[in-house]
Specification:
Length: 215
């Protein structure tokens, strides 16, 4: 483990301890309020582009809960995309995994709950999801991304869980905008104030966030 990796792991442990210590009811209330702010901000950013396609995520553990934001987006008729993990070799039972986004509407919410919602780390079969009416979508076609994180600093540097999945996606979508008619996507992290640290060590592959919604 490199020096930077050791620093990151120590920051993860500290930020998670502080996040876990937030009272459950307070966590829910603060999270829902932050989700309502994010919903309004995404709507304002997309006001001239019709109904947006938004990449959200299925919160887990003591993360700021995102279920309210998913519900608001579906009720507004937005195209909701969520990340799923799948094998890079679909025929393999084991091996490396990659992250893709799949999209669904309110009519397929119950199917999504059965197949992957509530289990964000589950390995899914993209073909099976497509057959169920929940197809994969290119990140370049997504208008807004709400990103999970473990810790962050005042410069927007983000510390994730160590998989590197979001860094790869953000590097791609923040450098390419042709799939959205030349517009840059709306990108925001979502975290509790308790997760802020003095400085997140940055490596070349790390992508800072342009904004972070603090619950």
């Amino acid at each position: 483990m490199t020096c930077a990796e050791k620093q990151k792991q120590a920051l993860r442990e500290e930020a998670l301890r502080r996040r876990d210590a937030v009272d459950a009811l307070e966590r829910q209330q603060r999270g829902e309020t932050a989700c309502e702010r994010l919903f309004a901000e995404i709507a304002a950013a997309a006001c001239n582009a019709g109904l947006p396609s938004v990449a959200l995520y299925d919160s887990m553990g003591s993360e700021a809960p995102t279920g309210h934001l998913v519900d608001l987006a579906l009720q507004a008729g937005w195209s909701v995309c969520l990340p799923v993990l799948h094998r890079t070799d679909p025929a393999a039972a084991e091996g490396p995994r990659a992250m893709s986004f799949v999209t669904f509407d309110a009519d397929r919410l119950q199917i999504a709950r059965k197949l992957f919602l509530g289990h964000p780390l589950r390995t899914v079969d993209l073909a099976a999801l497509a057959d169920a009416g929940i197809p994969a979508v290119s990140p370049q076609r997504i208008d807004a991304f709400v990103v999970p994180l473990v810790a962050f600093d005042a410069a927007g540097r983000r510390l994730g869980y160590g998989g590197g999945y979001y860094d790869a996606v953000l590097a791609q979508v923040m450098s390419e905008s042709h799939g959205r008619g030349g517009r840059q996507p709306f990108v925001s992290g979502l975290a509790f104030a308790e997760q802020q640290v003095d400085r997140v060590p940055a490596e070349p592959h790390d992508i800072p966030l342009p904004r972070i919604e603090i619950a």
